[in-house]
Amino acid sequence: MTSFCQKFVAAYEASAQEQAEKPLPHLHSGFWLQSYGFSKACLNRYCQIMASKHPSLSCVACSPGFVDTEMVKSYRGDSKLKSVEEGGDVCAWLACCPSIDNGYYNPDRSMLEGS
After folding, report:
1. Residue 62 CB: number of other CB atoms within 10 A?
2. Is position 115 within any domain?
3. Among 20, 22, 44, 85, whose CB has the most other CB atoms within 10 angstroms?
4. 16 CB contacts (<8 Å, ≥6 apart)?
């Protein structure tokens, strides 16, 4: 995993260097979404590790869905963007839920099967 992370960071830095003169270089390179996805995957795995090492802790991860924020301002795909309120629903629900099972939660508050 460490080697993979190092290669990803090196590729990201090389792309950023190439795009440095452009406004918002991370948007031109396409790495903005890849970086977010990669960091999200690392966080999800970290939650799984913590849950297995500390079963008495609540360790959850969630997907808010594709939310209309500054980060996706240049997005031109087909997916419908959610409002910030819609995206924040599962996050707020998990934070306020008195008892929750460890795992990964979808935007509709359902747990991802096998998580």
Report:
1. 22
2. no
3. 44
4. 25, 26, 29, 31
Both tokens assigned to 77: 């795909």
DSSP secondary-structure letter at 5? H
| Helix pair 31-53, 2-18: axis angle to 10 deg | 160
Q: Which residue has the tokens 């409002």?
A: 83
The reply to whether 114 falls in a domain is: no
Per the domain annotation, does 99 fall within a domain?
yes
Query: Locate tokens 């629903």: which residue?
Result: 89
Average per-residue pLDDT for the chain: 80
Q: Is residue 112 part of a domain?
A: no
Q: How many domains does the chain have?
A: 1
CA dist., res. 71 & res. 36, Å (int) = 10
**Per-residue confidence (pLDDT) for residue 82, from 0 to 100:** 92
Q: Average pLDDT, stretch 18-41? A: 64
Q: What is the pLDDT of residue 2?
A: 75
Q: Which domain holds residue 35?
A: 2-105
pLDDT digit string (tens) for 42-90? 888 888 888 899 989 889 999 898 898 887 777 777 778 899 999 999 9
